[in-house]
Amino acid sequence: MSDPDAQEKGARTILHLDMDAFYASVEVRDDPSLVGKPVVVGGSARRGVVSAASYEARKFGVHSAMPTAQAFRLCPQAIFLPVRMDRYIEVSDRVFEVFNRYTPLVEGLSIDEAFLDVTASHSLFGSGETIARRIKEDVAGELRLNVSAGVADSKFVAKIASDLHKPNALVVVPPGTSRQFLAKLPIERMWGVGAKTAPKLRALGFQTLGDLADAEVDRLERVLGSWGVEVRALARGDDARSVVPDREAKSIGAEETHDHDLTTRDEISRALLASAQRIAQRMTRAGVAGRTITVKLKLADFTLLTRQTTLTEAAADTMAIHDAACALLAKFPLKNARIRLTGLSLSGLEVRGAAPVLFPDKAAVKRQKLEELVRAVSDRYDGDDSAKMTRAALLGLSTKRTPQFK
Ligand SMILES: [Mg+2]
Question: What is the value of pTM for the model shown?
């Protein structure tokens, strides 16, 4: 491009914020006698799994998604507590109130994790790093909880950055340095590359994200199928996906790549319950309900299966969503199937009840300014044909197009 400001103009500032050991941290905060002790939140020892473990418990090898019985064997002295989802949702709403002070472009990924696009917020609140710092201070000061933050020019890199030095971390990747930042990281940092895929990639000589970035696509496709193209683009830091706030979303979904393949309907149903919970919370926050429900399963060989149905009444609560998902699950041919990814989404969204309160604080002038700035910036993006095309091509990770980002 001939415009010397083009690079500058196109650079976005995206934050990924992720609460540290959220459920366990809320329990410790609510009961100070637990401070400094290993705390495990999860299902019963008989059949349950760990939902969250405090960092003290993690030192013993306890981690989320592990059977509670195994956690007990590793760390019998830990305090085991049941999941209090209502409480976590309450606290989560307070956390998201803080996020919304700095931009209306907040996309919740789960109860304790969100992307924020703060590109338009700089003149009011400072750089991405400054905003991340202020959010961390607000959350620590008002809620006595820690949040880790990643700051970058794309969602993918911001998410990796926030996770790099947890807990209570702040990792800033300056614009234009994403590829360099990613290059040294091990391939396990790649979205969706877990215990199954990583050894296969390593066997082909791919050790780092830098190796993936430099790879010939067909070599990646040998292991990853059509997903190889996306993986290479992401490893280069090319990710033009926008932050889509829930209130403007066309669909709200949640998906999970599993460390171990799921092989029973029971396991899949449980995974879908976790997704239903996350979706229900985001829909409540956004004040919407959804009529069309889609279940997506990715098999170990990367075959993607989906089933969709339209409900007679729009759903917004966990049970209604999960019931519908389980009814759909019955329609999948699952004999001997090994499932590496489960996903659930609701579309056909409709607004219900009162509009959500986006800015609970009183700085009316500031927030009006902020809304204007955000609109101005999104207008600018919409006017830029190449950005628009790339964004359209990259909506969601399922596209097979290589991003044309420079
Ligand atoms: Mg978290």
Answer: 0.74
